[in-house]
């Protein structure tokens, strides 16, 4: 399952390997959680089979892909013995910081694209200190 994107839409839970190249990936697991990393795909596969994610349950405003993602995250948190996150908490802690960073990057990229500057990669080994 590694490399698959699970998403919930009108057709129910879908799995895709392509079409998500422009998305932001939000890192949720700390590197020291090796055991949970190994179980992640199985937990996701099992979770996605639940009745809540059948196609007729989809609602664009109230029961959508964001709901699916947050419900899965809260499922994993419960496996860890942690409490659930609200939509507001998840958005504030995980989504907004990454979205702000991506926005700054895209803004910089756009400014550079419209200037007379050329970006040249450093030779191997340079620039890493």
TrEMBL record:
<dbReference type="InterPro" id="IPR053921">
    <property type="entry name" value="MKRN2OS-like_C"/>
</dbReference>
<dbReference type="Pfam" id="PF16044">
    <property type="entry name" value="DUF4796_C"/>
</dbReference>
<protein>
    <submittedName>
        <fullName>MKROS protein</fullName>
    </submittedName>
</protein>
<dbReference type="InterPro" id="IPR032016">
    <property type="entry name" value="MKRN2OS-like"/>
</dbReference>
<feature type="domain" description="MKRN2 opposite strand protein-like C-terminal">
    <location>
        <begin position="2"/>
        <end position="112"/>
    </location>
</feature>
């Amino acid at each position: 399952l590694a490399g698959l994107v699970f998403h919930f839409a009108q057709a129910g839970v879908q799995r895709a390997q392509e079409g998500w190249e422009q998305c932001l990936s939000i890192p949720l697991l700390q590197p020291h959680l090796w055991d949970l990393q190994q179980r992640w795909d199985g937990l996701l596969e099992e979770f996605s089979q639940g009745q809540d994610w059948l196609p007729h349950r989809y609602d664009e405003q109230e029961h959508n892909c964001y709901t699916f993602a947050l419900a899965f995250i809260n499922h994993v948190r419960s496996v860890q013995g942690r409490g659930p996150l609200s939509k507001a908490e998840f958005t504030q802690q995980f989504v907004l910081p990454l979205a702000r960073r991506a926005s700054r990057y895209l803004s910089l990229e756009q400014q550079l694209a419209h200037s007379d500057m050329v970006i040249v990669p450093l030779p191997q080994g340079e620039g890493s200190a």
